[in-house]
Amino acid sequence: MELTGAQILLECLKREGVDVIFGYPGGAVIDIYDELPRHPLKHILVRHEQGAIHAADGYARASGKTGCCLVTSGPGATNTVTGIATAYMDSIPVVIITGQVPTPLIGNDAFQEVDIVGITRPCTKHNYLVKDVASLALTIRRAFYLARSGRPGPVLVDLPKDVMQARTAFVWPDDEAIRMRSYNPSAKPNKRQLQKVAELIRAAKRPVFYVGGGVVSANASADLCWLARRLHIPVTATLMGLGGFPADDPLWLGMLGMHGTYAANRAIQDSDLIIAAGARFDDRVTGKIAEFAPKATLVHIDIDPTSIQKNVAVHVPMVADVGQALSDLRALVEQQDAGFDFVAAHEPWVKTTLEWELEHPIKYVPAKRGEAVKPQYVVEKIYELTKGEAIIATEVGQNQMWTAQFYGFQSPRTFLSSGGLGTMGYGFPAAIGAQMAFPDKLVIDIAGDGSIQMNIQELATAVCYDLPVKIVILNNGYLGMVRQWQELFYKKNYCATCMEAQPDFVKLAEAYGAAGFRVTRSRDVEKVLKEAFAVPKPVIVDVRVSPDENVYPMVPAGKSLGEMLLV
Amino acid sequence: MSEKRHVLSVLVENEPGVLSRVAGLFSGRGFNIESLNVGPTLDKGVSIMTITTVGDEQIIEQIVKQLRKLVMTIKVVDLTEHKAVEREMVLIKVNAEDSRRAEILRIVDIFRCKVVDVSPEELTIEATGDVGKIKAIFSMLQRFGIKEIARTGTVALKRSLQD
Ligand SMILES: Cc1ncc(C[n+]2csc(CCOP(=O)(O)OP(=O)(O)O)c2C)c(N)n1
Ligand SMILES: [Mg+2]
User: Fold this and answer.
1) Model confidence pLDDT, tens digit, residues A270-301
2) How far does B72 lie from chain A, in Å, by closest CA?
3) Which residue of A has its CA nearest to B57?
4) What pLDDT is attached to residue A482?
5) Is A538 exposed, middle or buried (0-12, 13-18, 19+ CB in 10 A)?
6) Separation between Cα atoms, residue A515 and residue A513, nearest integer Å
């Protein structure tokens, strides 16, 4: 049977298991929208294409499935670029479908024509322009295959209007057909290297697991937990790795890096064996690279060969799927180390790290009577009320760091945050995506007053589709994180960081048909949060917090992890 | 670490945009390209790129890995690690008044170059060789006044016998 390009596209999406697509129509994709009502696919009409791509990304992070969004050519396509780069930096599987002008017009500066394949080449894992309807099905299948395999990432497919209208026989390409001689992500860990790691662990006195987003993305959390407990090794994680190891475990050191805990950073600097898994030695994590982990033997497990030996020279490189590597390591330990007393071997070290934790815990100075609400207190309360079981998205800035520090993430895929790109405006649409994946879960965006205004229009989306996302704004009246840098490193020259002329967020919520709450006193925080979380629709809670609170500890940019500013 | 010249042989799928993916990778990550040559291979679906670049060991390792990571890349070989033949062809337009013509032709002869175009004031010379030879030819012709050049960039193949 012959199908149109639009029909083939939707049939392929269905067979790829896509159940929801976030999109926004336009001339170049009307043919697809014309077909949409005849398909089981649920379409979420966002209010800005950036919202669509972030929502698809949030859906993917929360569910582990590949997210999908659909936008028109030209401005529709360019509006997704920030979100594509966000997903690329954090290795999130999403497929972006963009409309394109008809093939005969490509290159003519046609109306709403833009070379989106050219624009997104450096921020996608791969991208395609489909010029012939005969190759459409194969291209869509490959796009999904590329997005989710190896190191995941965004893949864009650009579809000219005439290709959507053309007809051809529909053939579903089998698994053999989608294989590519030029793409063979290696997943299997090298046995000899694994053996070496096991030996290093037995010999180590001060070992640390340093884990990143790869542990979450590879669903390696259970094996990590088993290994850490069996081997008695403390665990620290990057921002992207939060949730990969339960924060209430005694072996948890907290996040490391620029706003990491004293214990985590100190452990890295004193460690004699660091097992880095699914992390990439980002500058926000390592601080001054030359002084990073000076005493440690470094093991680095990552699916992407380019991540290894890029920023630091490691002693035991291992290109492998982190999930596979940790489960193989577990099998090895179970088989050959049954009699080894790891607790005895590592207990003195674990004790030392606990002492550091007690010496300098993550803390803040609580508000005195009459003082403004402390933002950290709000995050603590959210943690208490949700018992660490909610899905938490964040924006970017201080709100993001306080969430990372004061919310004890218990399980993977419950923390959605733009780590690599640091995209303000990410959290709220990502929370919408997560709520689509888990309609019955409590999904909260912990926001800043600046960031939330970057995609506030998606309140209409949340209201329209009954997605009861809760936004808690830590409203400090400032672009707080930038203000903090100005205070500490730029002689308090507070240029362009005070958010004057703020909207009334409560009225704004109400104008959109959501609910709005305001909190100005510490003693009301818990009560209002409770009330807000019980409202069965989207909510903004505008918490007026202390405007001059800073995020500590802090390793100033370019300094070593040993040089932390403490509270 | 010391910087060294490397010749990379890269087999890629012959598809639109592949050159710009490779070029974009170099510019986006701040890697050097000294020359880049693209051409067909015996397999219609495959193109071969020969890239000469300069960097220390760590940078070259990154370049090779980044090239391999591109979804369209089939194979990357650092020919510097192998025995290889490499050649570049250059066209050199040089000043050639009557009084100096004989001298230039002698140099052309010594280097086994060819004269491919002649006019009363100029000669255009075709020269082929490895980097060393091309450098030598330039330095010999410099004093006559080189007016224009065009270069193919290096192309290279692994030698059949490696031992
Ligand atoms: C799109 C974007 N623009 C600019 C920045 C730079 N930036 C980082 S944090 C920050 C301040 C964020 O302010 P707010 O959302 O109020 O959060 P706060 O730090 O006050 O909690 C800015 C401007 C960014 N990360 N993203
Ligand atoms: Mg703020």
Assistant:
1) 999 999 999 999 999 999 999 999 999 999 99
2) 6
3) A309
4) 98
5) buried
6) 7
Instruction: Determine contact, residues A74/A160, Cβ cutoff 8 Å.
Output: no
CB contact under 8 A, A182 and B74: yes
Q: Per the structure block, which two tokens stand in for A69?
A: 């969004």
Q: Enumerate the β-bridge partners of residue B12.
A: B47, B73
B21–A305 CB contact, under 8 Å = no
Q: Is residue A52 within 8 Å of residue A25, measured between CB atoms?
A: no
Distance of alpha carbon A305 from alpha carbon A151, whole angstroms: 10
> Is there a contact between A148 and A64 (Cβ–Cβ < 8 Å)?
no
Q: How many CB atoms neighbour CB A403 within 10 A?
A: 31
Beta strands A252-255 and A235-237: pairing type? Answer: parallel
Helix, strand, coil shares of chain B, percent, nearest 5, are 35, 40, 25
Residues 6+ apart with CB under 8 A from A119: A77, A78, A81
- Tell me, in angstroms, the distance from the centre of ligand 1 to residue A479's CA: 5
Measured from the CA of A375, which atom of ligand 1 is nearest?
Answer: 21
Burial B28-40 (b: 16+ CB within 10 A, else e): eeebebebbbbee
Inter-chain Cβ pairs, chain A and chain B, closer than 8 A: 38
**pLDDT confidence of residue A310:** 92
Instruction: Provide the ipTM.
Output: 0.93
* Amino acid in the structure at residue A44: I
Answering whether pTM is above 0.90, one says yes
The whole-angstrom separation of Cα A6 and Cα B40 is 35
Tell me: the pLDDT tens digits for B11-59?
Answer: 999 999 999 999 999 999 999 999 999 999 999 999 999 999 999 999 9
- As annotated, the active-site residues of A are 49, 111-112, 161, 481
User: Which H/E stretch holds residue A44?
Assistant: strand A42-45
Q: How far apart are CA A443 and CA A41, in angstroms?
A: 23
User: What band does A1 get if pLDDT is binned at 50, 70 and 90?
Assistant: confident
- Distance of CA A551 from the midpoint of ligand 1 (Å): 14
Q: Do B68 and A305 touch (CB under 8 A)?
A: yes
List pocket residues of ligand 1, CB cut-off 6 Å. Answer: A 395-399, 422-424, 448-451, 474, 476, 478-482
Range list of H helices, A438-521:
459-464, 480-489, 505-512
The SS3 of residue A384 is helix
